[in-house]
Amino acid sequence: MSNLERHPVELLCPPEGPAGPVVQVLSPREVPLGGPRAMNVRRTLPQRGRTTIGAWCFADHYGPDDVQVTAGMIVPPHPHTGLQTVSWLFEGEIEHRDSAGSHAKVRPGAVNLMTAGRGISHSEVSTPETTRLHGVQLWVALPEASRHVAPFFEHADTSPVAMGDAAVRVFVGSLAGSGAPEASVTVFSPLLGAQLELPPFGTVELELDPAFEHGVLVDSGPVEISATDAPSGELAEDTVSTTAAWSELAFLEAGRRRIRLSAEAEPVRVILLGGVPFGEELVMWWNFIGRDHDEIVEFRRQWQADVIGRDNPDGRFGTVAGYDGSPLPAPELPTVRLKPRP
Question: Does the model's pTM come out above 0.70?
Answer without folding.
Answer: yes
